[in-house]
Amino acid sequence: MREINQWSQEEMAEKLEMSPTGYAKIEHGKTNLTLDKLKQIAQIFNIDVVELITKNDRSFFFSVCDNTNNTTYIGVNDILAMENEKLKLLLEAKENEITALKEVIELLKTK
Questions:
Q1: In a domain, 13, yes or no
Q2: In 3-state terms, what secondary structure has residue 29?
Q3: N or C: more exposed end of the chain, with fewer CB within 10 A?
Q4: How many domains does the chain have?
């Protein structure tokens, strides 16, 4: 995507507020990406994280680490499954809210 936008590694590194060497390590898979950095990259390209990792029908495999030096390897299917689960939970919450609001309406009608 960087090349599609005709940005050099140096320009991309500047956008990410990191060194060109550090960014080159990301491109070459020599460093772990934090989820925050992945979100920042997606934001630079003005796309969703899921869209970033599934761009051009390619499958990507990310090594995502956290502050405790634990590393989680996430593939496209894992990310899509997490997104799907999140959306299911949101849908369930909305359905519960609708049910509660219907009950409030019925109570108000009876008064």
A1: no
A2: coil
A3: C
A4: 1
> Two tokens at 70?
């634990």
- Tell me if 1 is assigned to some domain: no
Three-class secondary structure of residue 1 per DSSP? coil
Does a structural domain hold residue 23? no
Number of other residues whose CB lies within 10 A of the CB of residue 41: 21
pLDDT in tens, the chain (111 residues): 788 888 899 999 999 999 999 998 888 878 877 888 888 998 998 888 877 776 544 444 454 555 555 545 455 566 677 778 888 999 999 999 999 999 999 999 998
Tokens representing residue 26 in the block: 């990301």
> Hey, what amino acid is at 58?
R
Q: What residue has token string 């969703």? A: 48
